[in-house]
């Protein structure tokens, strides 16, 4: 389990992480989301002790990462896949990590096969493609067979087969009862992989929730209805707690009633319907809505339009 409590990191007069608290429990994949500059990378670096917090704590299985006698066996981490000597082979890179952490040789062979690196295990890492480098980084993160796994953008550069492999791998690790923390800008992939979300913006916590709850909140529980008799349908649906608005001449948006009840009322009063759909949004839309006031770097829409 990862526990972050009151974590703050300042660089001079700039606050990168601001009194941040959240937890990453075992048995689920937790997505760590935020716009560029939100403090995600700084937070992950503090979790593994690469950056020292100005205040607050970050614990892995109840201890600071550096306090564990065999940290690689507690937390497997991928922050920068290219942080490998380019002259080493994948095999020798993993063996060097294994020697320094008391990991047996057979485990090196296991993670090489797991990551699909068998054919290139003895080639120099400097000649690897971005996708192969990502696979090596994931293999290194899993080398100690850790109870906690934290990966930053693990699918960058991977082909569709590789992306699906990472997705199934992370969900499989969570199903084994491990703690899995995943940071990614690919919302479509996060929607298929994550169970929980921790969303940050400008260094502060914006939400700690489930994927389903965030999407439902953004959708607003509205129902789109189309009918050739909108005035009659509006009269039928009018009730305390129900809001009916018009989008087009024959289309309404209803809040306060579910699609089943709307259909029942329309049938009872013989009002014809030719569309009855619960409004939905994607995880990307929900994320954009939540973080719109916390985006540090905005693209120039006017410039693109020109």
Compose a concise summary of this entry.
This protein has 306 residues and is of the alpha/beta class.
Would you kindly provide a written description of the structure presented here, covering whatever features stand out?
The protein has eleven helices and 13 strands. A hairpin with a 2-residue loop joins strand 1 (2-11) and strand 2. Helices cover 35% and strands 26% of the residues. The protein is an alpha/beta fold and 306 residues long.
Write down the Rg: 24 Å
Low-confidence stretches: 301-306
Strand content: 25-35%
What's the main sheet like? 6 strands, mixed
Helix and strand content put the structural class at alpha/beta
What is the 3D shape?
A: elongated
Distance between the termini: 49 Å
Q: How do the helices and strands line up, and which of them pair or pack?
A:
Layout: E1 2-11, E2 14-24, E3 29-33, H1 40-47, E4 55-60, E5 75-78, H2 90-101, H3 105-114, H4 130-142, E6 148-152, H5 160-175, E7 179-183, H6 187-193, E8 196-201, E9 204-210, H7 211-219, E10 222-226, H8 230-237, E11 243-248, E12 251-255, H9 259-268, E13 275-278, H10 283-291, H11 301-305
Parallel strand pairs: 3-7, 3-8, 5-6, 6-7
Antiparallel strand pairs: 1-2, 1-4, 8-9, 10-12, 10-13, 11-12
Features of the shown structure:
306 residues, disordered C terminus, alpha/beta, 4-stranded antiparallel sheet
């Amino acid at each position: 389990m990862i526990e972050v409590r009151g974590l703050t990191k300042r660089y001079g007069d700039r606050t990168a992480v601001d009194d941040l608290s959240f937890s990453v429990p075992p048995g689920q994949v937790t997505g760590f989301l935020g716009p560029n500059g939100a403090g995600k990378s700084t937070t992950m670096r503090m979790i593994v002790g690469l950056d020292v917090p100005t205040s607050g704590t970050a614990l892995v299985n109840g201890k600071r990462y550096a306090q564990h006698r065999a940290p690689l066996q507690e937390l497997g981490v991928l922050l920068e896949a290219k942080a490998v000597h380019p002259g080493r082979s994948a095999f020798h890179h993993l063996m060097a990590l294994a020697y320094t952490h008391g990991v047996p040789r057979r485990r090196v062979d296991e993670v090489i096969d797991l990551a699909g690196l068998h054919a290139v295990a003895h080639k120099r890492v400097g000649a690897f493609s971005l996708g192969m480098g990502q696979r090596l980084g994931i293999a290194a993160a899993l080398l100690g067979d850790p109870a906690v796994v934290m990966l930053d953008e693990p699918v960058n550069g991977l082909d569709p087969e590789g992306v699906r492999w990472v997705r199934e791998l992370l969900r499989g690790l969570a199903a084994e009862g491990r703690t899995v923390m995943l940071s990614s800008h690919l919302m479509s992939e996060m929607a298929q992989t994550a169970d929980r979300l921790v969303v940050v913006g400008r260094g502060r916590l914006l939400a700690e929730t489930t994927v389903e709850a965030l999407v439902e909140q953004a959708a607003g529980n509205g129902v789109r209805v189309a009918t050739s008799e909108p005035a009659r349908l509006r009269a039928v649906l009018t009730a305390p707690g129900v809001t009916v608005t018009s989008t087009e001449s024959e289309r309404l948006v209803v809040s306060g009633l579910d699609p089943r009840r709307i259909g029942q009322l329309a049938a009872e009063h013989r009002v014809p319907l030719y569309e009855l759909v619960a409004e939905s949004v994607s995880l990307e839309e929900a994320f954009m809505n939540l973080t719109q006031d916390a985006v540090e770097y905005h693209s120039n829409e006017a410039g693109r339009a020109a």
